[in-house]
């Protein structure tokens, strides 16, 4: 009976977590559920979460001392940077850092690591299953469009029930299932973190396979590249060689279906274009069109402003520059303060080297590969995932009070 009450409490608090964080990047469900009141709804559920801490008599648990020091150093730097440049963008970074710390404290205080990630991993696997079912239904014309929502300027969220899609003004042949996230790349980014966290705390092979293969449906090239690296780092050994062979066989079968004439061309055109054609274009030296402005202009801007330049001024001078490349933080923070931006990873690297922790170093390689195409991590969800992967020590975990 007591375990049932505790399990219900886990689910209730996890729902509160989802509704609290839903308006803060990269989730989209609050946009669909609450519309223009999405932020008010998030703050409302966040307030409920905070009030429930004393109601249930939960002990407040603070993050690791090293993490707090790192965050404090970053806050001091970003506050100074924003005051010097009067940068609105950096004001938002300061806000998200403080908000991220608050969310982390609430998660640490409310859940054990097993409770939180059992819920969150299953949530993401369920999201992937909805993507799979939604893709099949959409392909055969059985998935009606329920609504369209404005998101980040020219982008829109196409709501197909539990099957959300984010695209720009063009919609034809642009099926990009992303579950509860704003785009496939975000889902893939989270999936890689969860694969590593599963390896660290659970070693659940069913979860691992689900997190590897279900996000492939999003046709995220970032997921394909990082999964190849994941297999190379974790599976290419005598113990796991049979699993590696099985995975290669599955991928080969998928590629064969897309490239052969077994399935009608109109049914495979989109997936072939978003996966095989993009991969072949990349290997032949073609640029990623969505990030081409960042990759081409990055070296020129950095050479001109090696000590940093705020985002607003960079985009005013170079309107075609794309933020979502590794050149973004390099240019904005410059050679002197880029180490402050990546301070959590520097700490994790030296800690991993000092303890000869191969898993930490491998995890840094995989997270680094993701950061190359999605370099901004100072949001609540990313901070929580980074903390549990590189800072959290389960041996010192305190049980929740209810």
What does this molecule look like?
Among the domains are: 57 residues, no CATH class; 166 residues, no CATH class; 42 residues. It has a 3-stranded antiparallel sheet. By secondary structure, the chain is mainly alpha-helical.
List keywords for this structure.
402 residues, mainly alpha, three-stranded antiparallel β-sheet, 3 strands
> How many H/I helices?
17
Radius of gyration: 22 Å
Class from helix and strand fractions: mainly alpha
Q: Strand sequence of the main sheet, in spatial order?
A: 1-2-3
Strand content: under 5%
Overall geometric form = globular
- Tell me about the largest β-sheet: 3 strands, antiparallel
Helix content: 55-70%
Count of DSSP strands: 3
Order of helices and strands: HHHHHHEEEHHHHHHHHHHH
Q: List the uncertain runs.
A: none
Rounded mean pLDDT score: 83
Question: Alpha-carbon distance between the termini?
Answer: 13 Å
Short overview:
66% of the residues lie in helices and 4% in strands. With 402 residues, the chain is mostly helical.
Architecture blueprint of SSEs:
Elements: H1 2-21, H2 29-34, H3 38-55, H4 65-85, H5 88-110, H6 113-139, E1 147-151, E2 155-160, E3 163-167, H7 184-201, H8 205-213, H9 221-234, H10 241-259, H11 265-283, H12 292-304, H13 311-317, H14 327-341, H15 343-354, H16 358-371, H17 380-390
Antiparallel strand pairs: 1-2, 2-3
């Amino acid at each position: 009976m007591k375990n049932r009450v505790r399990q219900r409490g886990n689910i209730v608090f996890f729902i509160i977590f989802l509704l609290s964080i839903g308006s803060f990047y990269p989730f989209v469900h609050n946009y669909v559920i609450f519309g223009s009141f999405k932020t008010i709804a998030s703050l409302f559920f966040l307030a409920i979460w905070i009030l429930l801490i004393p109601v249930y008599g939960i002990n407040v648990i603070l993050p690791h001392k090293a993490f707090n020091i790192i965050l404090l150093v970053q806050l001091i730097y970003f506050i100074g940077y924003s005051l010097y440049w009067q940068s609105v963008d950096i004001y938002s970074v300061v806000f998200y850092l403080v908000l991220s710390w608050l969310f982390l404290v609430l998660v640490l205080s409310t859940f054990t690591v097993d409770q939180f990630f059992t819920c969150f991993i299953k949530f993401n696997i369920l999201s992937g299953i909805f993507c799979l079912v939604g893709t099949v239904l959409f392909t055969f014309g059985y998935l009606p469009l329920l609504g369209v929502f404005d998101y980040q300027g020219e982008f829109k969220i196409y709501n197909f029930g539990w099957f959300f899609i984010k695209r720009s003004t063009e919609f034809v042949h642009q099926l990009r299932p992303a579950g509860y996230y704003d785009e496939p790349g975000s889902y893939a980014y989270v999936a890689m973190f969860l694969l590593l966290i599963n390896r660290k705390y659970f070693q659940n092979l069913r979860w691992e396979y689900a997190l590897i293969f279900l996000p492939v449906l999003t046709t995220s090239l970032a997921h394909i590249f990082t999964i190849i690296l994941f297999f190379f780092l974790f599976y290419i050994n005598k113990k796991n060689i049979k699993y590696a062979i099985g995975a290669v066989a599955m991928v080969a079968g998928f590629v064969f279906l897309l490239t052969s004439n077994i399935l009608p061309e109109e049914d495979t055109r989109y997936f072939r274009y978003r996966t095989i054609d993009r991969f072949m274009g990349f290997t032949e030296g073609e640029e990623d069109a969505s990030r081409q402005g960042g990759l081409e202009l990055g070296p020129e801007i950095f050479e001109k402003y090696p000590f940093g330049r705020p985002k607003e001024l960079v985009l005013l001078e170079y309107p075609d520059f794309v933020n979502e490349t590794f050149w973004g933080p390099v240019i904005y923070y410059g050679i002197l303060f880029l180490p402050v931006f990546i301070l959590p990873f520097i700490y994790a690297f030296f800690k991993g080297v000092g303890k000869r922790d191969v898993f930490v170093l491998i995890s840094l390689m995989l997270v680094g590969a993701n950061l190359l195409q999605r370099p901004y991590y100072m949001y609540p969800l990313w901070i929580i995932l980074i903390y549990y992967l590189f800072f959290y020590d389960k041996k010192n975990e305190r049980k929740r009070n209810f």
